C-alpha cells in the first residue's frame, strides 16, 4: 500500500489531473507485467470504474495491460537488447547515454514508425492515443521513480541504465515536474553542477 500511495503522491506533487492520481493509487489493481498479482480480474472492470470513475479506471487498465517486453525495446532500443532489463553490455550502454544516443529523438520506433502498444490481456497491438500514452508515461515515471527513490543508490546498474534511457527518450511526453523528479532522483542535476 505504501508504494501505491507514494505513486499517487508523486502525481499530486506534479499537479496531475485527479483521474491520473487515482490511477496511480490503483495502478496494480489488475496486476502488471512486472507485478503479476492482480487484486481484481480485469474482465470485471466495472467494479473499479464504479469506485474511481471510468476515466481513471481506463488509465489503470491501460497501465496494467502494457506488455513491457513489447513496449520497452521500442522506447530504449539502443540499450534494451530486446529484453525488459536485459542490458548485456553495460559499458556500451553507458557510452551511448553519454553520447546522447537517446536524447532529443522523436518518440517513435527505431524503424521510424509510431510506437505500438500490445495489450497483454487481449494480445491486441495498436498505436495508442497520444493523450492516453502521455498519461501512461507519466504514471510510469511516478511508479518507477517511487521504487527507485526507495532503493537509491542501490538500484542495479542495468535497471538504472534502462530507466535513464527510457526517461530521457520520453522527456517531451511528460510534465516538466516528472522529468525533473527523474533528474533529481538519478542525481543528474548534481553531476552537471559538479562538472
What series of H and E elements makes up the topology? HHHHHHHEEHHHH
Distance between the termini: 39 Å
User: What is the structural class?
Assistant: mainly alpha
Outline? globular
How many strands in all?
Answer: 2
Mean pLDDT: 83
Low-confidence stretches: 82-90, 101-106
Strand arrangement within the widest β-sheet reads 1-2
How many distinct domains? 1
Indicate the radius of gyration in whole angstroms. Answer: 16 Å
Tally the helices: 11
- Our estimate of the beta-strand percent is under 5%
Helix content: 55-70%
What summary fits the major beta sheet? 2 strands, antiparallel
Describe this structure in words.
- This protein is an all-alpha fold and 195 residues long.
- It is globular.
- The protein has one domain (2-194).
- A hairpin with a 6-residue loop joins strand 1 (117-118) and strand 2 (125-126).
- Mean pLDDT is 83; it is low at 82-90 and 101-106.
- It has helices spanning 2-13, 18-26, 45-52, 54-65, 68-75, 77-80, 90-98, 130-151, 157-169, 176-185, 188-194; strands spanning 117-118, 125-126.
- Strands 1-2 form a two-stranded antiparallel ribbon.
- It is built from eleven helices and two strands; from the N terminus they run αααααααββαααα.
Amino acid at each position: 500500500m505504501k508504494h501505491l500511495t507514494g505513486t499517487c503522491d508523486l502525481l499530486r506533487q506534479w499537479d496531475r489531473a485527479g483521474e491520473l492520481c487515482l490511477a496511480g493509487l490503483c495502478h496494480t489493481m489488475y496486476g502488471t507485467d512486472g507485478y503479476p498479482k492482480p487484486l481484481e480480474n480485469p474482465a470485471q472492470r466495472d467494479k473499479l470504474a464504479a469506485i474511481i470513475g471510468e476515466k481513471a479506471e481506463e488509465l489503470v487498465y491501460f497501465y496494467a495491460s502494457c506488455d513491457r517486453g513489447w513496449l520497452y525495446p521500442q522506447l530504449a532500443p539502443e540499450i534494451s537488447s530486446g529484453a525488459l532489463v536485459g542490458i548485456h553490455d553495460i559499458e556500451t550502454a553507458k557510452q551511448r547515454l553519454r553520447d546522447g544516443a537517446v536524447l532529443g529523438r522523436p518518440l517513435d520506433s527505431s524503424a521510424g514508425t509510431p510506437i505500438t502498444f500490445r495489450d497483454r490481456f487481449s494480445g491486441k497491438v495498436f498505436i495508442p492515443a497520444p493523450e492516453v500514452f502521455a498519461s501512461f508515461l507519466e504514471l510510469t515515471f511516478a511508479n518507477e521513480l517511487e521504487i527507485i527513490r526507495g532503493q537509491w543508490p542501490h538500484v542495479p546498474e542495468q535497471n538504472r541504465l534502462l530507466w535513464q534511457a527510457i526517461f530521457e527518450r520520453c522527456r517531451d511526453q511528460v510534465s516538466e515536474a516528472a522529468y525533473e523528479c527523474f533528474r533529481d532522483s538519478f542525481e543528474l542535476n548534481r553531476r552537471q553542477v559538479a562538472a
